[in-house]
Amino acid sequence: MGSQSDWETMKNAADTLEALDISYEARIISAHRTPDRLVRFSKGARDEGFKVIIAGAGGAAHLPGMTAAMTPLPVFGVPVQSRTLSGKDSLLSIVQMPAGIPVGTLAIGKAGAVNAALLAAAVLALMDDDLAVRLDEWRERQTDSVAEYPMDEI
Ligand code: RP5
């Protein structure tokens, strides 16, 4: 993620990966403030053993696109809700990649962070049968948790 301030949102991705027993690393890498760190990480990610990158950033959110430019790994971008423009700036910065360098862009905020983790899990599950089972079970639990009829708030 681009900043410590993104962690509140991106922790939802981390929690979802943990629920699926997927190992991950959470790092702060700013495209603007730590460009050398961005280059080192992005260029070395595949050799370090990473399989999928989830990049969350807000405002002029260059992190996902710049990361994708420097790695062949799949990159999923999470637009973090910004204070001034509510994340529409983040979304447009991430989603409008020119043809040739893809970033799979998720929803703004918590939903995007959770879904980025689920999408990463779905990609990894293509090569990991045990994970595929855990992902199926996660979805079954989600389905079971939805009441058929609404209740008044207690
Ligand atoms: C972006 O700027 C970060 O991804 C963050 O969402 C936003 C604001 O960062 P801070 O000023 O809170 O560090 O680079």
Automatic annotation (TrEMBL):
Reaction(s) the record says it catalyses: 5-carboxyamino-1-(5-phospho-D-ribosyl)imidazole + H(+) = 5-amino-1-(5-phospho-D-ribosyl)imidazole-4-carboxylate
Residues engaged in binding substrate: S3, D6, R33
Keywords: Isomerase, Purine biosynthesis
Domain PurE: 1-146
E.C. number(s) listed in UniProt: 5.4.99.18
Record function comment: Catalyzes the conversion of N5-carboxyaminoimidazole ribonucleotide (N5-CAIR) to 4-carboxy-5-aminoimidazole ribonucleotide (CAIR).
Alphabetical list of HAMAP family matching this protein: PurE_classI (MF_01929)
Protein name as annotated: N5-carboxyaminoimidazole ribonucleotide mutase
Organism: Metarhizobium album
